[in-house]
């Protein structure tokens, strides 16, 4: 593909015998290859910056059998998406040698064409060889740097595994502790492994089904389009999305099966969760169809309010477990006790549904961030609602397990995203647990990360509009909103941000569970 002021790369196959080293007519190409190899060994390492290199070589000098002429070789700005060239390792898989021809687009007076043939690990010089051309030494160094880059990528993936292991160990310890003390909390005998059982079953099922659904979503071309966030997130474009299509139903089904489809509270929470998942599904499908332009913010909020209104109508008429068999009560720790909100209860419920759904959606910007913090929030809510409605505690444990199972595929670096389908559903499920039991205060505590993300967006937009109105120029509080993108631009690595959010959420889970138990 040729474009103005860009380099032409043509790929041709020849049945000639392989050549054991690069052949080229300008030593500037050597510097180019070393720079490219330093960046993961691929030509895609040349990002959207200008790379201009001019090298003068002694005319007519013959070095190790190569004729190096006094020429100038320059490479102008190349865009990552302007051409598609596979890595050096893919070239070695072809049956015959592969030649790449580089030529300038300046016209007929430009530098002559240069031919290079990549090498494999077998073709690299060995210590037994007595003659090593200077350019092959540079090639060897570039190859070693490329191998080092791949090793660093493997080490980076370990960070996601460590984050998963940490959150899994913490949640197993929490549910085991609650199961051991459940009879003291509920003051009624509960089956053994009451919460750890739905949690473990959901993890196993979601993790297993993920190995089927991730390739399936990829084959269906349900791939994400990254247009917001830092520029470094551009590599995430093309990752399968809408993972909520499989892990949300699994969490709901496991909870319903364990409670025997007999709990009206679980059925109501499951229904509103699916409705919010449907809203997110419509948003995701429109985004894929209209090039990342899904539902408008106003339309999505209106749909969320409509779903909340239907849920409130059901809540008024259904015979659900509530504190002291009285609805519209909000349990608070002493000395506040039970607060009867009356007509303010529906407004608080609607606020929770909208804020939680959008809070999880805003948090879903880093690999594993939304799924892990949602799992911790469900854990805190399961502990808080256990004295009031034990069946809802099972629902929360099952959804927490579904989130952890999804993390096995969504950890850094993610192979799938939950999309709005999963994010809105998780927010709706958390709000439904609070609305059925009145445990809004524990919800605000356990979901502190979500509210912090929403608050950062509100502050950013409000400050920008206010400063633009009064000073004519808009100013920003953060480098980028939500908050996790600001931390990224400050130089903090993505897995470190996720691990810090997990630690903060774990502390909030302890606090939310304790307040919920002393309030019931």
TrEMBL record:
Membrane topology for this entry? Multi-pass membrane protein
One Pfam family, short name: Glycos_transf_4
Record-linked PROSITE patterns: MRAY_1, MRAY_2
**GO molecular function (one):** phospho-N-acetylmuramoyl-pentapeptide-transferase activity
* Keywords linked to the UniProt accession: Membrane, Transferase, Transmembrane, Transmembrane helix
| Family annotation (NCBIfam families) | mraY (TIGR00445)
Q: What protein is this chain from?
A: Phospho-N-acetylmuramoyl-pentapeptide- transferase homolog isoform X1
Species in which this protein is naturally found:
Coffea arabica (Arabian coffee)
Gene name, per UniProt, is: LOC113710463
């Amino acid at each position: 593909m040729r474009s103005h002021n860009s380099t032409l790369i043509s790929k041709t196959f020849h049945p000639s015998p392989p050549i054991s080293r690069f052949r080229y007519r300008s030593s500037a190409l050597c510097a180019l290859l070393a720079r490219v190899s330093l960046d993961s060994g691929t030509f895609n390492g040349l990002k959207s910056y200008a790379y201009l290199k001019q090298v003068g070589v002694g005319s007519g000098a013959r070095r190790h059998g190569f004729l190096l002429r006094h020429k100038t070789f320059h490479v102008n700005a190349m865009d990552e998406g302007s051409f598609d060239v596979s890595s050096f390792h893919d070239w070695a898989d072809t049956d015959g040698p592969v030649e790449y021809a580089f030529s300038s687009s300046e016209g007929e007076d430009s530098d002559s064409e240069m031919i290079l043939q990549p090498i494999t690990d077998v073709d690299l010089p060995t210590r037994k060889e007595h003659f090593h051309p200077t350019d092959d030494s540079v090639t060897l160094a570039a190859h070693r740097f490329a191998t080092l880059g791949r090793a660093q990528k493997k080490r980076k993936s370990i960070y996601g595994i460590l984050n998963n292991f940490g959150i899994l160990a913490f949640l197993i310890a929490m549910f085991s502790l609650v199961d051991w003390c459940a009879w003291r909390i509920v003051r009624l005998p509960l089956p053994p492994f009451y919460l750890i059982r739905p949690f473990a079953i959901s993890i196993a099922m979601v993790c297993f089904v993920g190995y089927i659904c991730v390739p399936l979503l990829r084959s269906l071309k349900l791939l994400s389009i990254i247009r917001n966030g830092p520029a470094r997130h551009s590599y995430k474009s093309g990752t399968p999305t809408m993972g909520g299509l499989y892990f949300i139903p699994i969490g709901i089904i496991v909870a319903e099966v364990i409670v025997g489809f007999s709990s009206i509270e679980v059925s109501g929470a499951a229904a509103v969760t699916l409705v919010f998942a449907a809203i997110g599904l419509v948003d995701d499908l429109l985004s894929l169809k209209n090039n990342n332009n899904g539902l408008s913010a106003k339309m999505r909020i209106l749909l969320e309010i409509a779903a909340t209104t239907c849920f409130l109508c059901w809540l008024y008429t259904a015979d659900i477990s509530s504190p002291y068999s009285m609805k519209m009560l909000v349990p608070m720790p002493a000395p506040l006790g039970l607060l009867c909100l009356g007509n303010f209860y529906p407004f608080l419920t609607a606020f929770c549904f909208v804020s939680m759904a959008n809070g999880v959606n805003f948090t879903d910007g880093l690999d594993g961030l939304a799924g892990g913090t949602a799992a911790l929030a469900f854990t805190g809510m399961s502990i808080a609602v256990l004295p009031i409605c034990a069946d809802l505690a099972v629902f929360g444990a099952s959804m927490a397990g579904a989130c952890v199972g999804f993390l096995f595929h969504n950890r850094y670096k993610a192979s799938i995203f939950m999309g709005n389908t999963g994010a809105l559903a998780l927010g709706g499920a958390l709000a439904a647990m609070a609305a059925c039991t009145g445990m809004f205060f524990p919800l605000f505590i356990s979901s502190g990360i979500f509210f912090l993300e929403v608050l950062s967006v509100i502050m950013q937009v409000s400050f920008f509009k206010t400063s633009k109105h009064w000073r004519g120029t808009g100013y920003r509080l953060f480098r980028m909103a939500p908050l996790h993108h600001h931390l990224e631009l400050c130089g903090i690595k993505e897995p470190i941000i996720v691990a810090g959010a997990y630690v903060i959420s774990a502390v909030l889970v302890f606090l939310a569970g304790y307040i919920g138990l002393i309030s019931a």
